[in-house]
Amino acid sequence: MPSPGRNIAALRASLPCRHIVVAAIAAWLLLPIGPSEANWLTDVFKGKDKDKKADANAAAPKHAAAKHAVAKHEKETRHAAAPKPHQAVAAHVKLAALGPMNHSPAKGASSACEPTKFRIALDVGHTAESEGATSSRNVTEFTFNLRLAQQIAEKLKAEGFAETRLMVTEGKAKPSLFKRVNVANDLNADLFLSIHHDSVPNKLLEDWEFEGKKSHFSDRFSGYSVFVSHDNPEFKTSFAFAELVGKEMKAKGLTYAPQYTMAIMGHYQHPLLDKETGVYAYDELVVLRKTRMPAVLLEAGSIVNRDEELKMGSSERRDQISDAVVAAMKDFCGPPKPVAAAP
Predict the structure, then answer these.
(1) What is the pLDDT of residues 246-294, one digit of tens each?
(2) How far is CA 159 from CA 193, 250, 340, 341, in A?
(3) What letters, b where the CB count within 10 A reaches 16 and e where it falls short, cover 75-85?
């Protein structure tokens, strides 16, 4: 898009009624942006410093012969017309408030915190419009994610984590990823946890019918997995919490999914960071690398495995997983463990 300042300078040089035209353009630039446009700008541009610098360089005056006064005026006009950073929470993200919101400056997540003030952004993976994977019995992943995340949120609140926020995002898949990031960052959350249920690459799925409808399954793999990103600014803390989640899942008798280390997974193959607890690196995932706080993604179990799907749909399995997450959160947010004295 051409620079507003350059457009105005050109009009002033060429049109007789330049003052009237400049005033009209300035008034147009100051018109409010509608909600849909504002959300789109937030989703695409927020936090992209490199893109902003590139745009600024592209908008610099190109006419070397321009007088210094005109160049200065263009720069000031362009700077004044630039949109201010979007501060409002994205309009298409719903937050289920589970207690009063404390707007004090967020502190860095650590092994010691106050549960009543610790802000947890609990993200429901996918959306009603982009529902994620489909289970072996034709139930959407979003349905599984929402049901489990609601239970985790309720238990976190019951254990004193009153500022937990349940994030239910609307929209298509890719734009919704940036909406989640923007909301979590705007909330100054101390921790971001995204809830998902697993599948396998399409090439590994087999055909079958359930209740007269065509469906797909893969009974080859099962189990949970936990993901973090090296590109997250709080990677070490993210990894520490991910290990606690994996440890508590294992303590509940659950096993992690080993297939992400296999070449058969193609571009879904990821490095295994902890072979005891099932923590993997997923560096490119937007919600893990663009959030400014520690961020973890939990694949609770496989819904394309026909046996595990039945377990994932049970209240007993949801209790196991939600209890594991709460236990990990309490350990993460508890007092530092005393260091034993050397003999």
Answers:
(1) 999 999 999 999 999 999 999 999 999 999 999 999 999 999 999 999 9
(2) 17, 21, 29, 32
(3) eebbeebeeee
Domain span at 289: 93-332
- pTM comes to 0.69
Residue 72: C-alpha distances to residues 15, 52, 59 (Å): 20, 20, 14
Whether 341 is covered by a domain: the verdict is no
**CATH code for the domain of 196:** 3.40.630.40
Biggest distance spanned by C-alpha atoms of the chain? 91
Element containing residue 11 per DSSP (H, E): helix 4-14
CA torsion through residues 143, 229, 326, 309, sign: positive
Length of the chain: 343
Domain end call among 42, 58, 81: 81
Same-domain check for residues 41 and 97: no
Question: Under 8 Å CB-to-CB from 337, ≥6 apart: which residues?
Answer: none
182 and 320 share one domain: yes
